[in-house]
Amino acid sequence: MITKNSTITVDDVKSNPRVRYYIELADKSLEALGYTEHGFRHVGWVSYQAGRILRELGYDDRLAQLAEIAGYLHDIGNAINRVNHEVSGALLAYDILKDMGMPYEEIGKIIGAIGTHHEASGYPVSEVSAALILADKADVHRTRVRNTDNISMDIHDRVNYAAISRDIIVDPDSRQISYDIQIDTNIAPVLEFFEIFLDRTIMAKKAASVLGCEFHLIINNAKLL
Ligand SMILES: [Fe+2]
Ligand SMILES: [Fe+2]
């Protein structure tokens, strides 16, 4: 049961200076560690997609708004350390949202989603968690590569750079969620995609089932799953 007067939206969260600072810091730390982009572009895309998934499946709009907020905040824990960033991020989000006056029932849904989004330790534990996982794991795209000089050396950079487009297709009637990804196989073979995305794909499949949906993976117009 969610308190009726909760009105904090993702726009409020986006304009919070503390949020902006921690997202910048998280992305800078990951840049220093050699990771792909995890800044405003990544969290903005994940936020939008997480909300859209729940809305298109007919969930309550407030639940979709909570998924948007979880999406925007999900990677701030990287400001502390990449290791366990899902847990540290949930705690940072707790502090920020509490100070913004969000009811604890809503904060609980958001921190539970953030704390379970990472494939190393995560599991889709709720609808918000499932939507966040589905959005986050789909963001394979060339705009995430910081330095194209690395693409021959680094498989993550290579696969991301090869990903020309990616979309999440939600079909509420047949209850199907599909990742539709276009990969330039001159840059990376599809096998390399699976090498680094297999655990993410398995997590996405579990997340879809929490939302009562089948999961499909389409790469270069071929249905692989
Ligand atoms: Fe993450
Ligand atoms: Fe992420």
Topology:
Elements: H1 10-14, H2 17-32, H3 40-56, H4 61-73, H5 85-99, H6 104-114, H7 127-137, H8 155-162, E1 163-171, E2 176-183, H9 190-210, E3 214-219, E4 222-223
Description:
This protein has helices at 10-14, 17-32, 40-56, 61-73, 85-99, 104-114, 127-137, 155-162, 190-210; strands spanning 163-171, 176-183, 214-219, 222-223. The chain is built from 9 helices and 4 strands. The model has no long low-confidence stretch (mean pLDDT 95). It has one domain (10-223): Hypothetical protein af1432 (Orthogonal Bundle), CATH 1.10.3210.10. A hairpin with a 4-residue loop joins strand 1 (163-171) and strand 2 (176-183). Strands 1-2-3-4 form a 4-stranded mixed sheet. With 225 residues, the chain is of the alpha+beta class. The longest helix has 21 residues, at 190-210. 52% of the residues lie in helices and 11% in strands. Helix 3 (40-56) packs across helix 7 and helix 5 (85-99) runs antiparallel to helix 6.
